[in-house]
Amino acid sequence: xxxCSVRCGLIAGATIGALLAVLGGVLIPVGNSIIKDxxxxxAVIENGTTAYENxxxxxxxxxxxxxxxxxxxxxxxLQYGAKPVLTEKGPYTYRTRYLPKENITAxxxxxxxxxxxxxxxxxxxLSVGPEEDNVTSLNLxxxxxxxxxxxxxxxxxxxxxxxxxxxxxxxxTVKEILWGYQDPILxxxxxxxxxxxxxxxxxxxxxTGKDDISKVSIVDRWKGERQLNFWNxxxxxxxxxxxxxxxxxxxxxxxxxxFFSSDICRSVSAEFDSSQDLKGIEVYRFMLPALTLxxxxxxxxxxxxxxxxxxxxxxxxxxxxxxSSCRDGAPIYISLPHFLHGSAFLRxxxxxxxPSEDQHSTFLxxxxxxxxxxxxxKRLQVNMMYGPSNTITVLKQIKDYTIFPVLWLNxxxxxxxxxxxxxxxxxxSRIQLLEAVQVALLSVGSIVCVLCSIASCVVDRNSLSKxx
Length: 468
Prior knowledge:
By secondary structure, this protein is of the alpha+beta class. Helices cover 30% and strands 27% of the residues. The chain folds into two domains: 2-40 and 427-467; 60-415, no CATH class. Helix 1 runs antiparallel to helix 9. The protein starts with a helix and ends with a helix.
Protein backbone atom coordinates (compact mmCIF):
# COMPACT_ATOMS: atom_id res chain seq x y z
CA UNK A 1 0.00 0.00 0.00
CA UNK A 2 2.85 2.36 0.87
CA UNK A 3 4.67 1.67 -2.37
CA CYS A 4 1.47 2.22 -4.31
CA SER A 5 0.92 5.60 -2.60
CA VAL A 6 4.48 6.68 -3.32
CA ARG A 7 4.23 5.53 -6.90
CA CYS A 8 0.89 7.30 -7.40
CA GLY A 9 2.33 10.46 -5.89
CA LEU A 10 5.34 10.33 -8.20
CA ILE A 11 3.14 9.76 -11.23
CA ALA A 12 0.99 12.70 -10.16
CA GLY A 13 4.13 14.82 -9.72
CA ALA A 14 5.38 13.85 -13.15
CA THR A 15 1.98 14.72 -14.64
CA ILE A 16 1.90 18.10 -12.89
CA GLY A 17 5.46 18.80 -14.03
CA ALA A 18 4.55 17.94 -17.59
CA LEU A 19 1.51 20.19 -17.42
CA LEU A 20 3.64 23.05 -16.08
CA ALA A 21 6.14 22.57 -18.92
CA VAL A 22 3.32 22.49 -21.46
CA LEU A 23 1.85 25.66 -19.90
CA GLY A 24 5.23 27.36 -20.18
CA GLY A 25 5.43 26.32 -23.82
CA VAL A 26 1.90 27.53 -24.51
CA LEU A 27 2.66 30.89 -22.89
CA ILE A 28 5.41 31.59 -25.46
CA PRO A 29 3.12 32.07 -28.50
CA VAL A 30 0.29 33.44 -26.35
CA GLY A 31 2.62 35.92 -24.62
CA ASN A 32 4.25 36.93 -27.88
CA SER A 33 0.82 37.49 -29.39
CA ILE A 34 -0.20 39.71 -26.46
CA ILE A 35 3.01 41.73 -26.75
CA LYS A 36 2.63 42.14 -30.50
CA ASP A 37 -1.00 43.22 -30.21
CA UNK A 38 -0.09 45.79 -27.56
CA UNK A 39 2.85 47.15 -29.58
CA UNK A 40 0.70 47.37 -32.71
CA UNK A 41 -1.91 49.31 -30.79
CA UNK A 42 0.57 51.76 -29.20
CA ALA A 43 2.68 52.23 -32.37
CA VAL A 44 -0.21 53.70 -34.37
CA ILE A 45 0.11 57.47 -34.90
CA GLU A 46 -3.24 58.33 -33.41
CA ASN A 47 -4.23 60.62 -30.57
CA GLY A 48 -3.95 58.71 -27.28
CA THR A 49 -1.18 56.27 -28.24
CA THR A 50 2.40 56.23 -26.99
CA ALA A 51 3.68 56.74 -30.53
CA TYR A 52 1.54 59.84 -31.03
CA GLU A 53 2.82 61.54 -27.88
CA ASN A 54 6.43 61.02 -28.94
CA UNK A 55 5.66 61.87 -32.55
CA UNK A 56 4.09 65.30 -31.97
CA UNK A 57 7.07 66.61 -30.01
CA UNK A 58 10.55 65.14 -29.73
CA UNK A 59 11.08 63.79 -26.21
CA UNK A 60 14.88 63.97 -26.12
CA UNK A 61 16.92 67.11 -26.72
CA UNK A 62 18.25 67.35 -30.27
CA UNK A 63 21.55 69.16 -30.79
CA UNK A 64 23.32 70.32 -33.91
CA UNK A 65 27.04 70.69 -33.50
CA UNK A 66 29.01 72.55 -36.16
CA UNK A 67 32.70 72.41 -36.99
CA UNK A 68 33.83 75.13 -39.40
CA UNK A 69 36.96 74.86 -41.52
CA UNK A 70 39.31 77.80 -40.97
CA UNK A 71 41.64 78.62 -43.89
CA UNK A 72 45.17 79.33 -42.64
CA UNK A 73 46.83 80.33 -45.95
CA UNK A 74 44.32 82.37 -48.01
CA UNK A 75 46.96 84.60 -49.64
CA UNK A 76 49.05 81.64 -50.84
CA UNK A 77 45.94 80.11 -52.42
CA LEU A 78 45.08 83.33 -54.25
CA GLN A 79 48.60 84.32 -55.32
CA TYR A 80 50.20 80.97 -56.07
CA GLY A 81 47.37 78.49 -56.38
CA ALA A 82 48.51 76.65 -53.23
CA LYS A 83 46.32 74.02 -51.61
CA PRO A 84 44.14 75.48 -48.81
CA VAL A 85 45.44 74.51 -45.36
CA LEU A 86 42.45 73.91 -43.06
CA THR A 87 41.95 73.57 -39.34
CA GLU A 88 38.73 72.49 -37.69
CA LYS A 89 37.06 74.99 -35.36
CA GLY A 90 34.24 73.72 -33.15
CA PRO A 91 31.94 72.46 -31.96
CA TYR A 92 29.47 75.33 -31.92
CA THR A 93 26.32 73.75 -30.55
CA TYR A 94 22.66 74.64 -31.05
CA ARG A 95 19.51 73.10 -29.72
CA THR A 96 17.15 72.24 -32.58
CA ARG A 97 13.83 70.44 -33.16
CA TYR A 98 12.48 71.79 -29.89
CA LEU A 99 9.26 72.98 -31.54
CA PRO A 100 6.36 70.52 -31.91
CA LYS A 101 4.85 69.62 -35.27
CA GLU A 102 2.23 72.05 -36.51
CA ASN A 103 -0.90 71.96 -38.68
CA ILE A 104 -1.47 68.31 -37.80
CA THR A 105 -4.33 66.98 -39.93
CA ALA A 106 -5.63 63.41 -40.09
CA UNK A 107 -6.89 62.15 -43.46
CA UNK A 108 -9.35 59.41 -44.35
CA UNK A 109 -6.71 57.34 -46.19
CA UNK A 110 -4.97 56.56 -42.87
CA UNK A 111 -2.33 59.27 -43.32
CA UNK A 112 -1.60 62.28 -41.15
CA UNK A 113 -0.16 65.57 -42.39
CA UNK A 114 2.06 68.08 -40.61
CA UNK A 115 4.78 70.68 -41.04
CA UNK A 116 7.99 70.71 -39.02
CA UNK A 117 9.09 74.17 -37.82
CA UNK A 118 12.82 74.93 -37.74
CA UNK A 119 14.57 76.72 -34.88
CA UNK A 120 18.05 76.92 -33.39
CA UNK A 121 19.10 78.13 -29.94
CA UNK A 122 22.81 78.59 -29.23
CA UNK A 123 24.18 76.55 -26.32
CA UNK A 124 27.35 78.32 -25.03
CA UNK A 125 28.13 75.65 -22.41
CA LEU A 126 28.43 73.02 -25.15
CA SER A 127 30.50 75.17 -27.51
CA VAL A 128 34.20 76.02 -27.79
CA GLY A 129 33.46 79.74 -27.92
CA PRO A 130 30.78 82.35 -28.69
CA GLU A 131 28.95 82.69 -31.98
CA GLU A 132 30.99 85.84 -32.55
CA ASP A 133 34.19 83.83 -33.05
CA ASN A 134 35.72 84.61 -36.44
CA VAL A 135 36.91 82.18 -39.08
CA THR A 136 38.48 82.60 -42.50
CA SER A 137 36.10 80.71 -44.75
CA LEU A 138 35.06 80.45 -48.36
CA ASN A 139 33.25 83.51 -49.68
CA LEU A 140 29.82 81.97 -50.28
CA UNK A 141 28.74 84.73 -52.69
CA UNK A 142 31.84 84.52 -54.87
CA UNK A 143 31.74 80.70 -55.04
CA UNK A 144 28.00 80.73 -55.67
CA UNK A 145 28.13 83.41 -58.35
CA UNK A 146 30.99 81.61 -60.11
CA UNK A 147 28.59 78.75 -60.91
CA UNK A 148 25.33 80.66 -61.20
CA UNK A 149 26.49 83.47 -63.48
CA UNK A 150 27.05 82.43 -67.14
CA UNK A 151 30.68 82.58 -68.24
CA UNK A 152 29.85 85.32 -70.73
CA UNK A 153 29.02 87.56 -67.76
CA UNK A 154 32.06 86.68 -65.65
CA UNK A 155 33.59 90.00 -66.66
CA UNK A 156 30.70 91.86 -65.05
CA UNK A 157 30.96 89.58 -62.01
CA UNK A 158 34.66 90.38 -61.74
CA UNK A 159 33.89 94.12 -61.70
CA UNK A 160 31.36 93.55 -58.88
CA UNK A 161 33.89 91.53 -56.88
CA UNK A 162 36.54 94.22 -57.30
CA UNK A 163 34.15 97.08 -56.57
CA UNK A 164 33.19 95.46 -53.25
CA UNK A 165 36.81 94.51 -52.45
CA UNK A 166 35.73 90.90 -52.12
CA UNK A 167 37.89 87.82 -52.48
CA UNK A 168 37.63 84.04 -52.65
CA UNK A 169 37.87 83.87 -48.86
CA UNK A 170 36.32 86.06 -46.18
CA UNK A 171 36.68 86.73 -42.47
CA UNK A 172 33.26 86.26 -40.84
CA THR A 173 31.73 85.24 -37.52
CA VAL A 174 30.41 81.73 -36.97
CA LYS A 175 26.92 83.17 -36.61
CA GLU A 176 27.14 84.97 -39.96
CA ILE A 177 28.39 81.95 -41.89
CA LEU A 178 25.73 79.67 -40.40
CA TRP A 179 22.64 81.85 -40.31
CA GLY A 180 23.33 84.66 -42.75
CA TYR A 181 24.73 88.15 -43.38
CA GLN A 182 24.03 90.93 -45.86
CA ASP A 183 26.29 90.28 -48.80
CA PRO A 184 27.40 93.35 -50.80
CA ILE A 185 27.82 91.48 -54.09
CA LEU A 186 24.42 89.80 -54.18
CA UNK A 187 22.64 92.51 -52.13
CA UNK A 188 20.91 89.73 -50.25
CA UNK A 189 21.20 87.61 -47.11
CA UNK A 190 23.76 84.85 -47.58
CA UNK A 191 24.50 81.98 -45.18
CA UNK A 192 24.89 78.21 -45.26
CA UNK A 193 21.52 77.70 -43.53
CA UNK A 194 19.87 81.05 -44.28
CA UNK A 195 16.98 81.36 -43.81
CA UNK A 196 16.39 78.93 -40.94
CA UNK A 197 14.50 80.18 -37.88
CA UNK A 198 10.85 80.64 -38.73
CA UNK A 199 10.96 78.29 -41.72
CA UNK A 200 9.25 74.93 -42.16
CA UNK A 201 10.07 71.54 -43.60
CA UNK A 202 7.05 70.01 -45.24
CA UNK A 203 4.17 69.45 -45.70
CA UNK A 204 4.64 65.78 -44.87
CA UNK A 205 1.98 63.10 -45.16
CA UNK A 206 2.86 59.87 -43.34
CA UNK A 207 0.90 56.67 -42.82
CA THR A 208 -0.60 56.26 -39.35
CA GLY A 209 -0.43 52.45 -39.38
CA LYS A 210 -4.08 52.23 -38.36
CA ASP A 211 -4.96 49.87 -41.22
CA ASP A 212 -1.50 48.32 -41.67
CA ILE A 213 1.13 48.61 -38.94
CA SER A 214 3.89 47.71 -41.41
CA LYS A 215 3.33 51.12 -43.06
CA VAL A 216 3.41 53.27 -39.91
CA SER A 217 5.55 56.44 -40.24
CA ILE A 218 6.32 55.79 -43.91
CA VAL A 219 6.20 59.01 -45.92
CA ASP A 220 3.33 59.07 -48.41
CA ARG A 221 3.88 62.63 -49.69
CA TRP A 222 6.31 65.49 -49.21
CA LYS A 223 5.15 68.96 -50.19
CA GLY A 224 2.10 67.33 -51.72
CA GLU A 225 4.06 65.06 -54.05
CA ARG A 226 4.81 61.33 -53.98
CA GLN A 227 7.96 61.85 -56.07
CA LEU A 228 10.77 64.41 -55.94
CA ASN A 229 11.47 66.60 -58.97
CA PHE A 230 15.20 67.15 -58.44
CA TRP A 231 16.84 64.32 -60.36
CA ASN A 232 14.67 63.75 -63.45
CA UNK A 233 14.78 60.02 -62.80
CA UNK A 234 12.14 57.68 -61.40
CA UNK A 235 14.58 55.83 -59.15
CA UNK A 236 16.46 58.81 -57.72
CA UNK A 237 13.22 60.79 -57.27
CA UNK A 238 11.66 58.11 -55.04
CA UNK A 239 10.45 59.16 -51.58
CA UNK A 240 11.18 55.94 -49.79
CA UNK A 241 10.77 55.01 -46.12
CA UNK A 242 10.14 57.10 -43.01
CA UNK A 243 11.72 60.33 -41.79
CA UNK A 244 14.07 58.19 -39.59
CA UNK A 245 12.49 59.22 -36.26
CA UNK A 246 10.76 55.83 -36.14
CA UNK A 247 10.15 52.75 -38.26
CA UNK A 248 7.50 50.02 -38.43
CA UNK A 249 7.77 47.71 -35.38
CA UNK A 250 9.35 44.25 -35.17
CA UNK A 251 12.56 44.99 -37.06
CA UNK A 252 14.38 42.31 -38.98
CA UNK A 253 18.11 42.99 -38.73
CA UNK A 254 18.63 41.26 -42.06
CA UNK A 255 16.58 43.93 -43.84
CA UNK A 256 17.67 47.48 -44.59
CA UNK A 257 15.91 50.51 -43.14
CA UNK A 258 14.87 53.19 -45.62
CA PHE A 259 14.35 56.85 -44.85
CA PHE A 260 13.94 60.15 -46.66
CA SER A 261 16.06 63.18 -45.73
CA SER A 262 15.11 66.60 -47.04
CA ASP A 263 18.59 67.83 -46.02
CA ILE A 264 20.13 65.82 -48.84
CA CYS A 265 17.09 65.80 -51.13
CA ARG A 266 16.94 62.02 -51.48
CA SER A 267 16.10 58.72 -49.81
CA VAL A 268 18.80 56.46 -48.39
CA SER A 269 19.08 53.11 -46.66
CA ALA A 270 20.88 51.89 -43.54
CA GLU A 271 22.22 48.42 -42.75
CA PHE A 272 22.39 46.55 -39.44
CA ASP A 273 25.78 46.92 -37.81
CA SER A 274 25.55 45.67 -34.21
CA SER A 275 23.41 45.37 -31.09
CA GLN A 276 23.96 48.08 -28.49
CA ASP A 277 22.92 48.62 -24.88
CA LEU A 278 21.27 52.00 -24.30
CA LYS A 279 20.41 52.59 -20.65
CA GLY A 280 19.52 48.92 -20.22
CA ILE A 281 17.54 48.70 -23.48
CA GLU A 282 18.76 46.61 -26.40
CA VAL A 283 18.83 48.61 -29.63
CA TYR A 284 19.92 47.74 -33.15
CA ARG A 285 22.52 50.05 -34.67
CA PHE A 286 21.97 50.73 -38.37
CA MET A 287 24.58 52.63 -40.38
CA LEU A 288 24.78 54.18 -43.83
CA PRO A 289 26.75 51.81 -46.07
CA ALA A 290 29.82 53.09 -47.92
CA LEU A 291 27.92 52.54 -51.18
CA THR A 292 25.49 55.38 -50.35
CA LEU A 293 27.67 58.03 -52.02
CA UNK A 294 29.78 55.68 -54.12
CA UNK A 295 30.71 56.50 -57.71
CA UNK A 296 28.31 55.12 -60.34
CA UNK A 297 31.07 52.81 -61.55
CA UNK A 298 30.87 51.11 -58.12
CA UNK A 299 27.16 51.62 -57.46
CA UNK A 300 25.24 51.98 -60.76
CA UNK A 301 22.13 53.11 -58.84
CA UNK A 302 23.90 56.43 -58.20
CA UNK A 303 24.25 57.35 -61.88
CA UNK A 304 21.07 59.42 -61.83
CA UNK A 305 22.53 61.56 -59.01
CA UNK A 306 25.45 62.62 -61.20
CA UNK A 307 24.45 65.96 -62.73
CA UNK A 308 27.78 67.46 -63.86
CA UNK A 309 30.32 65.23 -65.59
CA UNK A 310 33.02 67.95 -65.67
CA UNK A 311 33.29 68.54 -61.91
CA UNK A 312 32.71 64.86 -61.07
CA UNK A 313 35.37 63.75 -63.57
CA UNK A 314 32.94 61.96 -65.83
CA UNK A 315 30.94 60.65 -62.85
CA UNK A 316 33.89 58.76 -61.33
CA UNK A 317 33.98 60.87 -58.18
CA UNK A 318 32.84 59.10 -55.01
CA UNK A 319 31.73 60.58 -51.72
CA UNK A 320 29.75 63.69 -52.65
CA UNK A 321 26.21 64.49 -53.74
CA UNK A 322 25.50 67.51 -55.93
CA UNK A 323 22.34 69.04 -54.43
CA SER A 324 22.36 72.21 -56.53
CA SER A 325 19.11 71.11 -58.21
CA CYS A 326 17.26 71.38 -54.89
CA ARG A 327 19.17 74.46 -53.63
CA ASP A 328 18.18 76.95 -56.31
CA GLY A 329 21.24 76.12 -58.39
CA ALA A 330 23.81 77.00 -55.71
CA PRO A 331 26.95 74.85 -56.13
CA ILE A 332 26.44 72.90 -52.90
CA TYR A 333 27.78 69.38 -52.48
CA ILE A 334 26.90 67.15 -49.54
CA SER A 335 29.32 64.55 -48.23
CA LEU A 336 30.22 62.75 -45.05
CA PRO A 337 32.59 64.74 -42.83
CA HIS A 338 36.20 64.95 -44.01
CA PHE A 339 35.06 63.19 -47.22
CA LEU A 340 34.74 59.85 -45.45
CA HIS A 341 34.37 57.10 -48.12
CA GLY A 342 35.13 59.73 -50.76
CA SER A 343 37.64 59.74 -53.62
CA ALA A 344 41.23 60.41 -52.56
CA PHE A 345 41.54 63.48 -54.79
CA LEU A 346 38.81 65.23 -52.78
CA ARG A 347 40.92 65.06 -49.62
CA UNK A 348 44.12 65.76 -51.51
CA UNK A 349 42.77 69.06 -52.90
CA UNK A 350 43.07 70.56 -49.40
CA UNK A 351 45.35 69.93 -46.42
CA UNK A 352 44.07 69.06 -42.96
CA UNK A 353 41.33 66.42 -43.39
CA UNK A 354 41.38 63.18 -41.39
CA PRO A 355 38.28 61.03 -41.98
CA SER A 356 37.31 58.69 -39.16
CA GLU A 357 34.64 55.99 -39.17
CA ASP A 358 33.93 56.53 -35.46
CA GLN A 359 33.64 60.32 -35.59
CA HIS A 360 32.20 60.94 -39.04
CA SER A 361 29.74 58.14 -39.86
CA THR A 362 25.96 58.35 -39.53
CA PHE A 363 24.03 55.84 -37.43
CA LEU A 364 20.57 55.12 -36.01
CA UNK A 365 19.97 53.11 -32.82
CA UNK A 366 16.48 51.64 -33.15
CA UNK A 367 14.57 49.62 -30.55
CA UNK A 368 13.64 46.50 -32.54
CA UNK A 369 10.21 45.71 -31.01
CA UNK A 370 8.63 49.16 -31.28
CA UNK A 371 10.72 50.57 -34.16
CA UNK A 372 11.39 53.79 -32.21
CA UNK A 373 14.73 55.52 -32.92
CA UNK A 374 16.25 56.05 -29.47
CA UNK A 375 19.64 57.49 -30.40
CA UNK A 376 21.08 58.83 -33.62
CA UNK A 377 23.96 60.81 -35.07
CA LYS A 378 23.42 62.42 -38.48
CA ARG A 379 26.78 63.66 -39.72
CA LEU A 380 27.02 65.64 -42.92
CA GLN A 381 29.50 68.01 -44.52
CA VAL A 382 28.51 71.05 -46.58
CA ASN A 383 30.85 71.82 -49.45
CA MET A 384 30.89 74.40 -52.24
CA MET A 385 32.59 74.31 -55.60
CA TYR A 386 34.86 76.84 -57.25
CA GLY A 387 37.26 76.54 -60.16
CA PRO A 388 39.72 78.29 -62.43
CA SER A 389 38.88 81.42 -64.42
CA ASN A 390 40.72 83.59 -66.89
CA THR A 391 38.29 86.43 -66.24
CA ILE A 392 37.69 86.57 -62.49
CA THR A 393 40.88 87.95 -60.93
CA VAL A 394 40.63 86.14 -57.58
CA LEU A 395 40.38 82.80 -59.39
CA LYS A 396 43.16 83.20 -62.00
CA GLN A 397 45.69 81.17 -60.00
CA ILE A 398 43.28 78.37 -59.19
CA LYS A 399 44.45 75.26 -61.02
CA ASP A 400 41.45 72.91 -60.90
CA TYR A 401 37.86 72.54 -59.78
CA THR A 402 37.77 72.24 -56.00
CA ILE A 403 35.01 70.84 -53.78
CA PHE A 404 35.76 72.99 -50.75
CA PRO A 405 34.60 71.87 -47.26
CA VAL A 406 32.88 74.78 -45.53
CA LEU A 407 31.70 72.97 -42.38
CA TRP A 408 30.40 69.70 -41.07
CA LEU A 409 27.60 69.02 -38.61
CA ASN A 410 26.58 66.36 -36.16
CA UNK A 411 22.85 66.33 -35.39
CA UNK A 412 22.39 64.03 -32.44
CA UNK A 413 19.96 62.98 -29.73
CA UNK A 414 19.64 60.16 -27.24
CA UNK A 415 16.99 58.73 -24.97
CA UNK A 416 16.98 60.46 -21.57
CA UNK A 417 16.91 58.60 -18.25
CA UNK A 418 13.26 59.39 -17.46
CA UNK A 419 11.99 58.16 -20.84
CA UNK A 420 14.24 55.09 -20.64
CA UNK A 421 12.81 54.17 -17.22
CA UNK A 422 9.26 54.67 -18.48
CA UNK A 423 9.94 52.56 -21.58
CA UNK A 424 11.42 49.75 -19.52
CA UNK A 425 8.49 49.84 -17.08
CA UNK A 426 5.88 49.86 -19.85
CA UNK A 427 7.43 47.32 -22.20
CA UNK A 428 10.83 45.84 -21.42
CA SER A 429 10.11 44.81 -17.82
CA ARG A 430 6.81 43.20 -18.84
CA ILE A 431 8.50 41.22 -21.59
CA GLN A 432 11.26 40.17 -19.20
CA LEU A 433 8.69 39.14 -16.57
CA LEU A 434 6.74 37.12 -19.12
CA GLU A 435 9.94 35.47 -20.35
CA ALA A 436 10.96 34.69 -16.75
CA VAL A 437 7.58 33.06 -16.08
CA GLN A 438 7.86 31.06 -19.29
CA VAL A 439 11.39 29.87 -18.47
CA ALA A 440 10.44 29.09 -14.86
CA LEU A 441 7.41 27.02 -15.87
CA LEU A 442 9.35 25.17 -18.56
CA SER A 443 12.36 24.55 -16.33
CA VAL A 444 10.55 23.64 -13.11
CA GLY A 445 7.93 21.58 -14.93
CA SER A 446 10.54 19.67 -16.94
CA ILE A 447 12.72 19.02 -13.88
CA VAL A 448 9.78 17.86 -11.75
CA CYS A 449 8.50 15.64 -14.56
CA VAL A 450 11.91 14.05 -15.15
CA LEU A 451 12.72 13.55 -11.45
CA CYS A 452 9.32 12.08 -10.64
CA SER A 453 9.50 9.79 -13.67
CA ILE A 454 12.95 8.55 -12.64
CA ALA A 455 11.85 8.09 -9.03
CA SER A 456 8.74 6.20 -10.18
CA CYS A 457 10.92 3.84 -12.21
CA VAL A 458 13.15 3.26 -9.18
CA VAL A 459 10.10 2.49 -6.98
CA ASP A 460 8.77 0.07 -9.63
CA ARG A 461 12.15 -1.68 -9.81
CA ASN A 462 12.38 -2.00 -6.02
CA SER A 463 8.87 -3.36 -5.84
CA LEU A 464 9.65 -5.91 -8.55
CA SER A 465 12.82 -6.99 -6.69
CA LYS A 466 10.85 -7.66 -3.51
CA UNK A 467 8.34 -9.78 -5.41
CA UNK A 468 11.11 -11.87 -6.88
